[in-house]
Amino acid sequence: MRHGGEQAGGNGAEVTRKTQSAAKVLHATTPARVGAACALAGLGFALLGRLGVTLSDIQGPGGLLAPFLLGWFGAKIAFWRMAAIQGGVVLVGASIATWRWRAKRRDKSLASARAPLTLQGPRATFLRTLEHIVATHGDLPYSLILFDIDGFRVLNDRHGAEVCDDLLLCVKRQLVATLPENTRLARFGSDEFLAFVPLLTADEAISLTRRVLESVAGHRFDVGTGTLRTTLSAGLASFPESAHSLRDAMSQMTSALQEAKSGGRGTVAAARHNKVGVCRLGAEVESALSERRVRPAYQPIINLRTGHAVAEEGLARIVLSNGQILGADEFMNAATDLRLANRIDECLIEQALDRCREQSRQGDRRLRFINVSTALLQERRLLEQVAFAFTGCDVLGDLTGSRNPLVVEITERELLRDPAAALRALQPLLDIGARLAIDDFGSGYSSFLYLTALPVSFLKIEMELLKTARTSERARSILKGIKAIAQDLNILTIAEGIEDEELAHIARDHGVDWGQGFYFGRPVLELGGCVGVSEKIA
Fold first, then answer.
1. Where are the domains of the chain?
2. Which are the contacts of 52, defined by CB distance < 8 A and separation ≥ 6?
3. What's the rounded Cα separation, in Å, for the pair 39 and 29?
4. Of 130, 377, 406, 420, whose Cβ has the fewest other Cβ atoms within 10 Å?
5. Exposed/middle/buried for 127, CB within 10 Å: 0-12, 13-18, 19+?
6. How far is Cα of residue 523 from the mean position of the Cα atoms in its chain?
7. Domain 123-270 annotated CATH 3.40.50.2300
8. pTM for the complete prediction?
9. What is the pLDDT of residues 369-408, one digit of tens each?
10. In this predicted model, what pLDDT tens digit does every residue of 518-529 receive, in sequence order?
11. 538 Cβ partners below 8 Å, 6+ apart?
C-alpha cells in the first residue's frame, strides 16, 4: 500500500499603529516644548522686572518699591530670566539633536530594508522580524524558502571547518546575488539559509528557487586554496496558497525540505495546496487512527498484453471529519516525522488482509501489493504477525508458497540505505512466499547491483521516466534497457502513472509487462475502518 471578522481587526491594528506613532512624535517634541516654556518664563521674568521699574518711576522715591528693595528684586528677576533663557536654549538644542538622531536612525533602517541582502541573526531575532513584517503587511502574499547545502557534513569531514566556513560565505553571496532585492535572508542552521520573499506566489517561488539552485550548482566557489562545487536542496511554502499563518508556513517549509532531500541532490519541493502544517496534521492523523478513518483506496494493475486486471495496490487515504479525503502525499511526511507511519501501515495491512481473505473465498486470486515503509521495517514483530495471519487463515493458508498473493512493495531509497537489514526485516514475509517489488525504480537512486542479491520479483518503473519517453529517445533507450535486464533476471516490470492511451502504448511497445494509472482506473476508496493487525490476529 502506498502512502500514497478580519477587516475589523485590521482597522483596530491601524488605529493602534497611528496611536503609537503619535506617542512617538509627542515623546520626541517634549524637549522642545519644555524649552519653549522656559523661554516664555524668561520673557515673563523680563516683563515683570520692567513692570517693577515702571511702577517705581511712577510712584517716585517714596513709592511702593523702595530703591533697595527694587535693586534686590531686579537682581533676582535678572538671574531667573537668564536661567530660563539658557535652559530654553539647551532644551531646544537637545530637541533638535534628538530629531536629527531619530531621522538618521530611520533613514538607516529604510536603507537597510531596501539594500541588497545581508545575513541577519540570531535565528530568534530574525523570526521576530518576520512576525513583525507579516503583522504589518496584513494579508499580502509571501513565500518562505529554506535552502540546505547537500552533503555538508561530508564536505566538512573531507575539507575541514575553515574551508566549509568559506563555502557558507560564498553560498550566501550567491544567494544574495540571485534572490530579489526585497528578500530577507538569514542563516537558519549549520548549513541552512532561510529566505523570506514578500509578494511572491507559489508558482513564482518555485521558478525562483530553481534558478537559485541552478546558479549555485553551476558556480565554482573559491575556498581555501582551491575551488569547490556544491548543490542546494530547497523546500518552500507560500501564504496564503498553502499556509494560513507564518507558523504554518514554517512547518510546511521544513517538511517540504525533507521531501526534497529524500528526492536527491539539487531538488526543490513545495508545500501543496491546502496542506496543513506538521503539528495540525499529526493531530489529524492521530484522530483518524483512533476513529478508524484511515482507509485504503485500491487501484488496479493491468496486464498490458491482455488488458486484464492481475493485481491491485492499496493506497493510503485519510477521511477527514468534514468528509474531505487526504491523499498519502499530503500526510505521510508528517506521519513519518511524528512516528505514526508504522501505525498507518498496520491499519492498512489489517484491512488488506480482510479484503484478500474475503475475495479469495470468492475465487479472486489477484496479487495484493502492500507498501512497506522504513518505520514498518523496524517492526519485525508486526511483520511476523502479518506472516502468521496468512498461514493461520483457513483460506489464505492454502495460498502459501508460490501461490501467496502478497507482494511487499518498498522504494529504492529505503532499500539502499541498508539492503541487508531490509532483507532481514522482510524475511518472515518472504519465508511464506510473499514476493518483493521495488517501487519508483529509475527515480535517481537506481543501482542494479542489489538485484543480484535480493529476491526481487517486480520492478515498478517511476512515472516521470515514462512521461519523459514521450519526447526523449534516451528515455526510451533506458526503458528498453530496464526491460532487457529484468527479463534476463526473470523480473516483471510495471509502469506507473499511465494517464492516457499514448503512455499505455509507449509502455507496451517497450516491452513493459504490466501497467497502473488513471487510464486503467482511479483508486477506489473502501469503506470501513481498522482495529490493528495485532488486535485482529488475537
1. 6-114, 123-270, 293-537
2. 65, 70, 73, 74, 77
3. 15
4. 420
5. middle
6. 28
7. no
8. 0.50
9. 988 777 777 777 778 877 777 665 555 555 555 567 888 8
10. 999 988 887 655
11. none
- Are 186 and 123 a contacting pair, CB within 8 Å? yes
| CA dist list (Å): 465 to 256, 476, 480, 506 | 22, 9, 12, 11
What is the grid cell recorded at 316? 493510503
Element (H, E) at 131: helix 123-137
DSSP state of 116: P
Nearest to 388 by CA among 238, 177, 210, 534: 534
Amino acid at 326: L
SS3 513: coil
State the cell numbers at 11. Answer: 482597522
Joined together, the cell numbers standing for residue 184 give: 530577507
Which residue is it, cell 491594528?
A: 13
Letter for the amino acid at 459?
A: L
Residues 6+ apart with CB under 8 A from 15: none
Domain 293-537 has CATH 3.20.20.450: yes
| Selection from 278, 327, 340, 301 nearest residue 493 by Cα | 301
Amino acid at residue number 284: E
Tell me the torsion sign for CA atoms 237, 243, 246, 251: negative
